[in-house]
Amino acid sequence: MAQVPPLPFGPAAGGLPGVPDQLSVETTVDQERAIVQPGVKSDELAGAPELGFWRLAVIRFFHHRVATGALLILGVIVLAAVVVPVITGNLYSIQDYRHPYKAPFQNLQHILGTDDLGRDELARLLRGARVSLMVGILAVVGYLVIGGGLGALAGYYGGWLDNALMRFTDIIISMPFLLVVIAVTAATGGVRLSTVIIVIAATGWFEIGRLMRAQFLVLREQEFVQAARALGASNTRIILRHILPNALAPIIVSATLGVSGIILLEAALGFLGYSIPPPEPSWGNMLQNFEEYLLSDHTYLVIFPATALVITALAINLVGDGIRDALDPRQR
Amino acid sequence: MTFYLVRRVAIGFFLLLLMSAIFFTLTRVTPGAPVSVGENPRIHQEQVNRRLHSMGLTDPNGKPYTVPESYVRYVVALVHGNLGDSYQYNEPVTTLLMQRLPNSILLLGAALLVALAIGIPLGIYASTHQYSKADMTTSIVSYIGVSIPSFVLGIYLLLIFAVFLKQTPLHWGFPLFGMHTGGVDDPVDLLVHMVLPVTALAILQIAIFSRFMRASMLEVLHQDYIRTARAKGLAVERVNYKHALRNAILPIITLVAIAIPQIVNGAIITEGIFSWPGTGQLAFQAVVDRDYPVILGVVMLVAAGTVFFNLIADVLYAVADPRIRY
Fold first, then answer.
1. Is residue A19 part of a domain?
2. What's the total number of domains in chain A?
3. How far is it, in rounded angstroms, from Cα B80 to Cα B174?
4. Mean pLDDT, rounded, for B295-318
């Protein structure tokens, strides 16, 4: 039992004569540490453990069996997409004209068979997974930077920026997204992956922008923001330290679901020949010759990329919904 | 209300103008000339000039129009109902659009009706039987529906009905796709052709409608006036279908307006996959051919349609819900 220095203020300061001071009498070393150093884990405190919002959310997420399973599947896909192509190198582009259309599950050399040019289907699928995931993640980062930034500023400051944002969103919403992306991609000359990512990010951020704006509109009027302002916090500090952390939950959900949306969009673009050009495989451009494959009964060349696409999108959506439930238990 | 309508229409026109400006500039700054000289040495520069002039890209002296100049010309022509000529078909874009539009409206309208007819009752049932097996099944199926893009769904449908079921009477052979035979004169044939593309387009919307309807119903069902109605001893059906449904179904109007551009988006690829001769297939082909006047025309058509349907949705909303005033 160590003596706790008397607190400078508060109910326990000094302690009433005759009444045992809570802190000095009953505390253990750990408890003291928890009180004196708030950053230290407070798990060992007697009674209910004080868990932070994010830790509780993580716990809730892993209690959700479907979401956890989806996360596991997604993890396997990401790991395979990141690691395997490094080992296999350029296997995805090696053509073997003697063995085109090798059926899947027949030999170990080409587990998922080969395509019309004798290229290994599995290697191409994994290479394509890389493309899909990279586009999905980078474009969502773009959404967050553009949409999150503009939405926050529009919601916080209002005024012309807010008006401009809302009108611009009206325009974007009334356009056929696919054609927009195609026109912009074509206009920027040549189809490169970087262009596709930038174009998707530049045309798709408005949903997160609107969400962020709505969050800021509500939060900027709340007492804790007023308190911060009264204490003299600058606008930057209020936006970044006070409002942003509280606005994040729905943004994270929307961003997660955005990844699957982008992956499907990229596949549609690839299918139309407006994503990464052919020697490089993507799930979309692997489906480009579907008619030929269907007519010649090489259905596996259609099934594999299409199913990979659906499983990935499904897994991301399930994870996203799991996160939603974890962050906002009221919404169940 | 009148003032509101006038304002909305004015904003709508402004949006269309802005959108056309953006798209027009985009298609003009795209690299690659419509007539290239270097490719064939036997083509005279004079012939090239004549062709460029006939395409409306240069003035009579052979001087190419600048982008703003040609945009003004485009808008003036647009007001006269002229969207320019297709590079690929050598025909006015308006003619092409008018040929294809009825087919698209037929397909998209059918898909929307099917989606509404299935999605809304499904959502209502799921909400009144929350956490039942039927509710869970609906949730799972709508999940999968949202995660499958319509083009992958179209390919799956072809795979099942054209390849896997080849030996069965359910077989849906390739010649059956598109409107190769009959057309409007043979309604049964037309219907048979529509089944697969309508399914491919409707599934996503069914998923969206049923999820939305369920959420909307659940929200209303937890409100006080519903509890009051129940406490009064009204029959469950009456509370659910009369008191709750009326309020819960309102937002669907907006959702349908939002769904229209989505269906059009899906239709661009779905029509291409099923060789359905609509505007979507026209756009699909134009994209492959890089036929910009046609792409521009389709974009303008869709944008105009979206602005129009959003307006209709807002007006309908005000009519359906007396609490809303503009």
1. no
2. 1
3. 41
4. 79
CATH number at residue A243: 1.10.3720.10
Question: For residue A321, is it within any domain?
Answer: yes
Topology, domain B98-320? MetI-like fold (1.10.3720)
Q: What is the mean pLDDT of chain A?
A: 77
Task: Tell me which residue has tokens 């209300």.
Answer: B1
Count of CB contacts below 8 A, A vs B? 117
Residue with tokens 């904003």: B11
| ipTM of the complex model | 0.75
Interface of B with A in 268-307 (CB under 8 A): 268-269, 273, 283-284, 287-288, 290, 292, 295, 298-299, 302-303, 306-307
Q: Is the pTM of this model over 0.80?
A: no
Sign of the torsion angle spanned by Cα atoms A175, A179, A183, A185: positive
B85: which strand partners?
A: B92
d(CA B57, CA B63): 9
B106 token code pair: 């037929």
Residues B34 and B57: beta-carbon distance below 8 Å:
yes
pLDDT 10s digits, A81-122: 888 878 877 777 777 777 777 777 777 777 777 777 778 888
Cβ(A320)–Cβ(A253) under 8 Å? yes
List the one residue out of B192, B187, B164 whose CA is nearest residue B176.
B192
A176 to B261: CB separation less than 8 angstroms, yes or no: yes
The CA R_g of chain A, rounded to the nearest whole Å, is 27
In a domain, A161, yes or no: yes
Domain ranges in chain B are: 16-79, 98-320
Whole-number Å distance between alpha carbons of A48 and A66: 28
pLDDT in tens, B82-114: 877 887 788 888 888 888 888 888 888 899 999
* Chain B (186-225) residues lying within 8 Å, Cβ to Cβ, of chain A: none
- Which residue segment(s) compose the domain that A303 sits in? 54-88+113-331
CB contact under 8 Å between B299 and A314, yes or no, is no
**pLDDT of A314 above 80:** yes
Which of B15, B27, B295 is the closest to A171 by Cβ? B15
pLDDT of residue B114: 93
User: Under an 8 A CB cutoff, do A287 and B302 touch?
Assistant: no
State both tokens at A68: 């956890």
Q: Would you state the structure tokens that stand for residue B138, as one six-digit string?
A: 């609906």
- Choose from A11-15, A172-176, A324-328 the range with maximum mean pLDDT: A324-328
Lowest mean pLDDT, pick from A105-114, A130-139, B200-209, B217-226 = A105-114
